[in-house]
Amino acid sequence: MSLPEIVHQHDIGLYVNKPATETIDLFPGLQNLIWTPPEDYKFPVSEKRNLKFQRSWLLKYKWLAYSAIPNGVFCKYCVLFSVGGGGIGHQKLGLLVKKPFTNWKKALESFSYHNSLEYHKTSLLKSNMRAEIDNQNILPVDLQISEQQLDFINKSKKCLIPIIETLILCGRQGLALRGSNDSGRITSEEPLTNDGNFRALLRYRAKTDDQLNTFLQNSSKNAMYISNRIQNEFIVIFHNLIQKQIIERVNKSQAFSVTADETVDIAGIEQVSICVRYLNNDDGKLKICEDFLSFVPVADVTGKGLSNVILDFLEYSGIDCAYLFEQGYDGASTMSGEFHRVQAYIKEKYHLAIYSHCAAHSFNLAVSAACSIPQIRNCLGTVQSIYNFFNTPKRLIALHDAIQNNETLLQEKKKKLKKYCATRWVQQHESIGTYIDLQPAVIDALENISSTWTDSKTTSGSFQLLSAIKTLEFQVSIHVLHSVHALALSLSRVLQTENQDLVEAVKLADAAKHELEERRQYSTENFNKIFVTVEDICKKYNIPVTKPRLASRQTNRSNIIIDSVADYYKIIIYIPYHDLFITHLQDRFSNIEIFCPTSHVFFLLKLNL
User: 354, 599 in Cβ contact below 8 A?
Assistant: First the structure.
């Protein structure tokens, strides 16, 4: 018989004939953990007599558990607690314990008979005793007999506290646990090799904690609780506890959105990172929270495969997806496509889960697309090349010396160029602004290197960069970039805030678009202000303020017939850059604006605000 497409992780059929070590997690809260078919579950009909399992039997016999794998039922207490046999002669156990019961015609008769069996009653007793032990109402039998064993366990528990606290400290501070040699007993003597932050912190703590020091020195080798395996087990426990708290807050909010992104880790495993965004009111103040839930490995990266992974994880983790009102991903076609994509499959099942593209990511895409203007693209490439050129110790010293010799730059806090990042727009703006501030020192350092150094590779590289910098096109491009970036910097930062909503994001994007349109409308006045600054720089460094020569055919560059130099660069750089930026802002945020008010209303209605 083939397995159903989706099997619940706590289906009783998965635990039949399994050793107790693999079913131990089910013992606490047995009634709630064993899977029960939902109300809308359709029980299969048997082929021979056209009969099927009745839900009322689950209410009449509380020990019954239905399994979707064989389309049969088991006694959940006997499956988990019975021994190898029962009855007179200790016969091997069969139906309802080792084999599924599927004869629905004789169901009530068989259930009543099983209810009267001695091994069934023994399993019920074991279950009740296990519940008492888990609730700490009674002690296990071995501890009731041996006071020495009980005393040892209590002391071991106390010694586990500093071990757990050390693991939590390393996690909060983002410290790696392991070292070059992190096995064996922790001694009071400092090791010759680094044995990791975890062991170092425990050793330091043991100097002032006699009980911990005694435990680390005298405990048996198989009960030190500091091995890599124990560390990993504690980390998994921390993860489960944190995830459980987040899920409880999400369900309590009764309104949440899911965000996910797919990537490949360093081991080459394809995985999806799943996060939730919800409203939290634990401390009496309504607050928007964004929390990471888990990395989930995936094998099928199609729209249907990824949507199944996301929904299965949310449902199995205990999140009530009836309160899923929004989903947010990047603009990749697999995630955002209208048909046969992740958002479409999820919305098909949960109709209120409206998809919206991440506003900050949309803005970053608009910026990147606007920078495709050839002059702007070449300018950014030159800035990146300058950073790479000075990113060596000897050349960096030459730049520092040039900064020290410039009295104006000595008063500035910026002493180093920033790396240009194509994917983080805020960092791109910072790299442009830093370069403009340090440009006098950059030019002085490049001139010094090209004229006095003997390394041919370095001198030729500095001369090429000087040639690129000392052009009117580069100076105009970088100052136009800086002007527009300064306008949109606040928008980019606000879009990345945790408490930002779609309505406000669209309003901010619309305000930025209107400001760009106004600059575009009064382009002559605005560009002339920039061009005055550029002319001063050109005069200082003897850069010719002229137009490039005309070509017989216009193929790879602008070939505009115009007398004014300022008007020429306004037409080929300033106006196209603004037009492209405005167009992409409109395209990227128009779709968000359609859905935004609806999703906002859903949140307000559910929260009764």
Answer: yes
355 φ, ψ (degrees, to nearest 5): -90, 140
Residues with Cβ within 8 Å of residue 1, at least 6 apart in sequence: 70, 71
Residues whose CB is less than 8 angstroms from the CB of residue 138 and which lie 6 or more positions away in sequence, other chains included:
129, 132
Whether residue 403 contacts residue 410, with contact meaning beta carbons closer than 8 Å, is answered with yes
CA 268, distance to chain mean position in Å, is 17
SS3 assignment, position 245: helix
8 A C-beta contact, residue 346 and residue 311: yes
Provide the token pair at 288: 């928007």
* Rounded Cα gap, residues 432 and 420, in angstroms: 8
Contact of 566 with 355, CB cutoff 8 Å: no
Q: How far, in Å, are 31, 67, 82, 109 from residue 57 at the CA level? A: 15, 14, 22, 12
Q: What is the pLDDT of residues 167-195, one digit of tens each?
A: 999 999 988 888 887 788 888 888 888 88
C-alpha to C-alpha distance for 486 and 489, rounded to whole angstroms: 5
What is the C-alpha to C-alpha distance for residues 280 and 264, in angstroms, rounded to an integer? 32
What is the DSSP-derived secondary structure letter of residue 59?
H
Picking from 350, 332, 366, 365, the residue whose alpha carbon sits closest to that of residue 258 is 350
Cβ–Cβ under 8 Å, residues 577 and 485: no
Running DSSP on this structure, what letter comes out for residue 202?
H
Q: What is the DSSP letter of 15?
A: G
**pLDDT score recorded for residue 600:** 42
Instruction: Give mean pLDDT, residues 200-204.
Output: 90
Residue 169 amino acid letter: L
- Give the pLDDT mean for 323-335: 79
pLDDT digits (tens, 9 = 90+) for 550-605: 666 666 666 677 778 898 999 989 999 999 988 888 887 765 544 443 444 344 33
Q: Which two tokens stand for residue 318?
A: 């205990």
Provide the residue type at 137 as one letter.
N
Report the alpha-carbon distance of residue 34 to residue 64 in Å, rounded. 10
Cβ-based neighbours of 573, under 8 Å, separated by 6 or more: 373, 375, 376, 473, 476, 477, 480
Top mean pLDDT of 115-129, 134-148, 484-498, 553-567 is at 115-129
Structure tokens at 537: 């720089």
SS3 (DSSP) at 495 = helix
Residue 298 burial (10 A CB sphere; 0-12, 13-18, 19+): middle
Structure tokens at 177: 């646990």
Q: Residue 77 and residue 64: Cα distance in Å, rounded?
A: 9
The residue type at 348: E
Q: Tokens 């309160």 appear where?
A: 323
**pLDDT interval class at 458 (50, 70, 90):** very high
Task: Give dist(CA 533, CA 192) in Å, integer.
Answer: 61
CB atoms closer than 10 angstroms to residue 232: 11
Compute the C-alpha angle 41/42/45, nearest 5°.
Answer: 150
